[in-house]
Design a protein that fits this description.
Jelly Rolls; 1 helix; three-stranded antiparallel beta sheet; 10 strands; single chain; 125 residues; mainly beta; five-stranded antiparallel beta sheet
């Protein structure tokens, strides 16, 4: 067996994202779950767009700050120490609002680990 101890700040930041993203599951060589660390300053969002996944379940554990999540049913505030979960096909957009007092840091967990399956969601359609 091979075990891993990963410091989220040691991973290379993923380019082209609206906030700081580090892929922890890649660093730990995990294949059956996606684990990412996001750090978003005020005005930044975590995913690239308002979206949903056909198969993947997602959970966001808030390490610091307050995460805001837009859903078709309204906006949710997820305080430090809490978790937001989205089942497959549930549209959501996680972000840190412009008027936030500081950054928000979360660990995002998704299973099964799927790449590029985020389907854009347009609330007006």
């Amino acid at each position: 067996m091979e075990y891993s101890v990963i410091d989220p700040d040691d991973g290379e930041p993923v380019e082209g994202r609206p906030c700081d993203l580090r892929r922890l599951s890649d660093a730990a060589d995990l294949e059956n779950v996606a684990i990412n660390r996001f750090r978003a300053d005020p005005g930044e969002q975590l995913p690239l767009a308002y979206h949903y996944h056909e198969q993947q379940e997602e959970a966001f554990v808030v390490l610091s700050g307050t995460l805001h999540v837009e859903t078709p049913e309204g906006e949710l505030e997820v305080p430090e120490g809490s978790m937001f979960a989205a089942p497959p096909e549930a549209p959501h957009r996680a972000y840190n609002p412009e008027d936030a007092e500081g950054s928000v840091e979360v660990i995002a967990i998704g299973a099964p680990p799927v790449s590029d399956d985020a389907i854009p969601y347009e609330p007006d359609e």
